[in-house]
Amino acid sequence: MENDILIHNGLLLTMEERLPVVENGAVLIRGSQIVDCGPEKELDLALVHDSNRIDAGGGVIMPGLVNCHTHVPMSMFRGLADDLPLDVWLNEHIFPAEATRLNPDSVHEWSLHSCREMLLAGTSTCCDGYFFEAQVARAMVESGIRAVAGQGVIDSPAPGVPDPTHNIQAAKTFVAQIMDLSSRITPSIFCHSPYTCSAATLVSAKQAAEDAGILFQIHAAETKNEIHMIEGLNKRSVIAYLDGLGLLNERTLLVHSVWIDDGDIEIIHKRSARVAHCPESNMKLASGIAPVPRMIDARIVVGIGTDGCASNNDQDLFSEMDMAAKLHKVACMDPCVMDARTCLAMATIEGARAIGLDREIGSIERGKQADIIIVDMKKPHMVPMYDPFSSLVYSAKSSDVSLVMVDGIIRVREGKLV
User: Residue 225: what pLDDT?
Assistant: First the structure.
């Protein structure tokens, strides 16, 4: 068709099952969808105008990256309180800063800032959880990114929800408000943690998410001391506690999951819950090292996230992949764990699966949405390339992303926002 777009002359990593690599690959896009992909010589390109052909210049053509956990407005707190323990960082710095600096305008401004940062770094989809989330969602729409937007729930006065008895209703109202906002934005409910939300709040929030058929997100088992901060734990693990409340299923995203054991891994697998791994944030706050290799061995779906800029301090999934691979190798004293293919899958198709969007995105396949990036492989630090997966995880930088397409619309061209 006349308006079809062709991306060609590149090494195509579809991130489909078995992770095929296609030499001289190409992707044909019609509207917002991928209609064909594979070796360029096998595609019917007779009707594609020259003006609609995008030359990848020998770079890698691959799915856009999926950031499974972030707090996009928190870029306003980047570098505010570094090098502190989590409880001090959160209670003495972040919570007070949120109380004084968060308002609808600041949240919109810094959410837009973060979305642009992610797009420039090759992230086409993010999963967010925060307050004033309607303003976050509005910024997401304006930026062109795809996102899961989660309204925050907490049992204390929060930005936009000064009366905590209204926290569940505020979340329900948010979901109803943005359900039809954009095809790129999916609502979610985000309970901050099991130590800031009562059992009743957790159950009500999960039920609201189930009624709407949407993702339920929660920080879980992030720190060693968390078990001492939760009422009613009764010597159970955090994961067992959440499971006892009926919160775990395939629409539950457990963020961090650092302090878990084999019994917890069995529960997560049995309930088909998903996990968001945030290695750089966990390292910076000295939270610990999540047993991700054991989770993957147990066939748990694990995506990768940056966390917010206040605890990372960027939203760069290329550095996150690199760090995840190396952190677990040294933690396990095994150079073979968390190989490059595993890490790249976590940032693409597994990340999409973790947030419930794998039928739409995460791989380059016919019928999926055209969320595609091109990575320049000609810069000195990328040469030579013996294995594209290794080069992308261990050598590539976010600045190597030359093009980002979301929903068939180019958002970054030649490394600059369109």
Answer: 92
Q: Give the residue among 55, 11, 8 at the shortest CA–CA distance from 28.
A: 8
DSSP 8-class letter at 308:
-
**What sections of 333-383 are H helices per DSSP?**
340-346, 349-354
For residue 96, say if its preceding peptide bond is cis, omega within 30 degrees of 0.
no
Mean pLDDT of 198-225: 97
346 three-state secondary structure: helix
CB atoms within 10 A of CB 399: 14
User: How would you classify the pairing of strands 33-39 and 274-277?
Assistant: unpaired
Host H or E run for residue 367: none
* Mean pLDDT, residues 299-316 taken together: 96
How much of the chain exceeds pLDDT 90, in percent?
93
The distance from CA 350 to its chain's CA centroid, rounded to whole angstroms, is: 10
Domains and CATH numbers, the chain: 5-64+362-417 (2.30.40.10), 65-354 (3.20.20.140)
Say whether pLDDT at 375 is over 90.
Answer: yes
> What's the pLDDT at 337?
98
